[in-house]
Design a protein that fits this description.
single chain, alpha/beta, Rossmann fold, 2 domains, 4-stranded parallel sheet, 3-stranded mixed sheet, 14% strand, globular
Length: 221
């Protein structure tokens, strides 16, 4: 299993240095990865977790608390949130990133399969939303991903069972739907986080509430 060692932390410091000076992200990652002889998984950790000081600060300022959701429409990036929670339920590693969002390093998006763990992950989402319900919840799944229609149907049924106001549906581009349809975006996807006005790390909130032991900090506190 992957873990955050001294070599990765040193590489992370170098990557932050370059990003803070506006170096191209891919080029900076390749340079640092080669210097520290990082393998593919280690490079993926840095790619997912390390951001410039400015970018991380901007994202933290957009993030709201769960208690602030009551009068807002929450849009959820379905696969993104579910995959992080499945990773936790499977006992695999998660990363506490520079921008304070929790991310997986599984790389399974696009190849996602519906399992018993998927149902458990959806239950965790519903239990959390029931405790602190938003005004409305819209959950979007990328239609190009296999079984996305089935997963959205399962999620809609769960929402009905838990009394969550809203719906789940497929979208050709879920990221655009998440950005356009609500006031707060629940995701750890960097593209959405950069464009959204307000965000909530739903998966990260659940992971932290569980005191998950395989959440590895790589960010500066």
């Amino acid at each position: 299993m992957m873990f955050i060692n001294h070599r990765i932390l040193e590489a992370a410091e170098d990557l932050r240095y370059l990003l803070n000076r506006k170096y191209n992200r891919d080029q900076a990652l390749n340079f640092v990865g080669d210097r520290y002889k990082l393998n593919r998984e280690e490079r993926f950790v840095l790619y997912r977790a390390i951001y410039s000081q400015t970018e991380a600060k901007e994202r933290k300022e957009k993030a709201i608390k769960i208690r602030e959701l009551g009068d807002k429409t929450l849009t959820i990036d379905g696969y993104n949130v579910i995959i992080v929670l499945e990773t936790m339920l499977d006992g695999k590693n998660l990363i506490d990133s520079d921008d304070a969002f929790v991310r997986d390093i599984s790389g399974v998006f696009g190849k996602h399969k519906i399992t018993k763990t998927t149902h458990q992950a959806i239950d965790l989402i519903m239990q959390t939303l029931k405790q602190k319900p938003p005004k409305k919840t819209l959950i979007f799944f990328d239609s190009p991903v296999s079984k996305s229609g089935e997963l959205s149907a399962i999620t809609r049924k769960k929402m009905e069972q838990y009394g969550i106001n809203g719906t789940a549906q497929v979208a050709k581009q879920a990221d655009n739907a998440v950005l356009r349809k609500g006031q707060v975006a629940a995701t750890s996807d960097s593209v959405i986080l950069q464009k959204a006005k307000k965000t909530f790390d739903l998966a990260g909130y659940i992971v932290r509430k569980k005191n998950y032991k395989h959440l590895y900090p790589i960010r500066k506190t």
